[in-house]
């Protein structure tokens, strides 16, 4: 393991009294060398190296030094900031695939319902499409092993269905209306991972507004984003809404390229620097194709990292109106460093700053990741999700946008226009069925029972119209009662518009994927409606 990956020997000594910590499980007796002024020198052994040798060679019992090292690696990283992370070898492929353009698998979207893996959708062009797997199928066996029960998790499913391109996996499925078990042998192939969930036109007061929702910043995010904008422009869009809500970030370069499309030549997008990381500035090069189009950016409490870079660049350059709720507050830059054994560490190496000079990183204490993770819950309990007056930002430093507007750092991006959660129609009954995911479960089961009937509708407008004419609410009440939620007619009547909107949107998603879900869902969303209102005022 390389010495420079350890903050200090003191940190190692603090770990549960265990003075071990090689970052890579090389053999403990391996020689280390370094070159200085063209000469080769042997690296002197540290206490850690010596202890590892002693444990490996002289300890009274046989021990697994590699296993101990893995535990210590995790504990070491816990002593740092909340975003540095150690990634074991067995998890690295899965972690990396989160931001990759594709992964190798069978090509299905799935949901776990009643301890059973159910196919929500078959990905177009994927391996499953050609062999006969259908939406609604229940996967009951994988490679001749039972695949049901309480031990089934999302992680277990992904590990079972993903694998090297060209490898084969056998699945057995059951289908609604049949007692027969269908067996398929599927050759795994490349499955694209999309960053743009939805793109569509909102027509309001004679203006066409292009809406683009970006769920992450992965390898192909910019390419997808610019293609979506071009498509919307071709449909007549003259203004745009970029939705970054629940987007936790990813690759910084993708956010920079997206921001470049809207900024003038020379505009600062972001800069970063760290103790051993020289200052880096990213500026617009003037090639952007949407420099003069009206723009609104949507953020919420879960918008983080690269999302905040984009939103901060638009806000500080007075290029767009930021609408929604205060963002997460992640202003740290990680670099992934691989180890020889196939594991890796994501180490924080710098902080990034918005064009006005503010760091939007929220406060944290080294080694106290659990308290950090509770921040969003604390914000919720303090009322921040509902009122701008409840927002508490630790950093009182004043920063200025290009036009002299005051902005602040130290805890996320505060939107220019705050839109709190609307609780007007909320009731305890509605909150219970939503929080327990009964709305989602019912929507899937309803879809599965009526799939043939619903399949005749090819767009979300016609499908929603059909659903609005179908009184499924009594079925839902009975379903919720079976789950232990007693009916409450008064509360149900009050929350019925919310319940109908949510369940219908889920059913539409089950049949038409996100392309149908988001236009329906966003139509009545308060933050989206505020964005449309702002853009209409600029006409």
Q: How many helix segments?
A: 18
- The number of domains is 4
Approximate helicity band = 25-40%
Rg measurement, Å: 26 Å
- What is the CATH fold-level name of the largest domain? 2-enoyl-CoA Hydratase, Chain A, domain 1
Low-confidence stretches: 1-31
CATH architecture identity of the largest domain: Alpha-Beta Complex
* Structural class by SSE content: alpha+beta
Class of the largest domain in CATH?
Alpha Beta
The CATH superfamily of the largest domain bears the name 2-enoyl-CoA Hydratase, Chain A, domain 1
> What is the mean predicted local confidence, pLDDT?
86
> What coarse outline follows from CA principal-axis ratios?
globular
**Strand element count:** 23
Distance between the termini: 61 Å
Sketch the major β-sheet.
Answer: 6 strands, antiparallel
Percent of sequence in beta strands: 15-25%
């Amino acid at each position: 393991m390389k010495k420079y990956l350890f903050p200090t020997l003191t940190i190692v000594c603090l770990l549960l009294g265990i003075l071990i910590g090689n970052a890579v499980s090389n053999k403990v007796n391996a020689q280390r060398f370094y070159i200085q002024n063209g000469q080769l020198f042997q690296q002197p052994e540290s206490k850690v190296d010596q202890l590892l040798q002693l444990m490996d060679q002289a300890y009274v019992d046989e021990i697994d030094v590699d296993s101990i090292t893995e535990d210590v690696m995790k504990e070491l990283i816990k002593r740092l900031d909340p975003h540095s992370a150690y990634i074991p070898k067995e998890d690295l492929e899965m972690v990396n695939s989160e931001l990759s353009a594709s992964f190798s698998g069978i090509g299905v979207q799935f949901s776990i319902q009643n301890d059973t893996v159910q196919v929500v959708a078959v990905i177009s062009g994927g391996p499953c499409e050609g062999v006969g797997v259908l939406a609604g199928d229940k996967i009951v066996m994988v490679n001749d092993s039972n695949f049901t029960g309480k031990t089934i998790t999302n992680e277990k499913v992904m590990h079972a269905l993903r694998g090297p391109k060209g490898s084969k996996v056998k699945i057995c499925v059951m289908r609604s209306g049949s007692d027969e078990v269908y067996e398929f042998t599927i050759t795994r192939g490349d499955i694209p991972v999309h960053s743009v969930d939805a793109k569509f036109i909102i027509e309001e007061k004679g203006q066409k507004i292009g809406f683009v929702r970006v769920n992450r910043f992965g390898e192909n995010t910019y390419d997808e984003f610019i293609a979506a904008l071009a498509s919307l422009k071709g449909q007549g869009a003259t203004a745009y809404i970029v939705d970054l809500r629940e987007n936790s970030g990813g690759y910084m370069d993708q956010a920079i390229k997206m921001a470049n499309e809207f900024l003038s030549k020379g505009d600062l997008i972001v800069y970063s620097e760290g103790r051993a990381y020289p200052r880096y500035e990213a500026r617009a090069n003037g090639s952007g194709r949407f420099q003069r189009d009206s723009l609104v950016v949507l953020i919420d409490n879960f918008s983080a990292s690269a999302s905040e870079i984009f939103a901060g660049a638009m806000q500080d350059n007075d290029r767009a109106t930021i609408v929604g709720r205060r963002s997460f507050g992640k202003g740290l830059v990680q670099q992934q460093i691989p180890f020889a054994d196939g594991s890796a560490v994501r180490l924080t190496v710098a902080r990034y700053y918005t064009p006005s000079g503010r760091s939007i990183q929220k406060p944290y204490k080294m080694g106290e990741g659990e308290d950090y993770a509770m921040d969003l819950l604390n914000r919720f309990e303090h009322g921040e999700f509902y009122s701008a007056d409840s927002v508490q930002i630790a950093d009182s430093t004043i920063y200025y946008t290009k036009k002299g507007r005051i902005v602040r750092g130290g805890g996320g991006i505060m939107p220019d226009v705050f839109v709190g959660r609307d609780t007007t129609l909320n009731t305890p009954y509605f909150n219970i069925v939503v929080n327990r995911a009964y709305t989602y479960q019912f929507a899937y089961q309803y879809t599965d029972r009526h799939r043939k009937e619903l399949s005749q509708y090819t767009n979300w407008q016609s499908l929603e119209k059909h659903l609005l004419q179908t009184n499924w609410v009594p079925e839902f009440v009975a379903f919720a009662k079976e789950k232990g939620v007693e009916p409450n007619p008064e509360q149900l009547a009050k929350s019925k518009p919310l319940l109908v909107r949510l369940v219908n949107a889920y059913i539409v998603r089950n049949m038409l994927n996100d392309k149908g879900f988001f236009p329906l869902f966003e139509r009545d969303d308060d933050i989206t409606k505020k964005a449309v209102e702002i853009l209409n005022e600029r006409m």
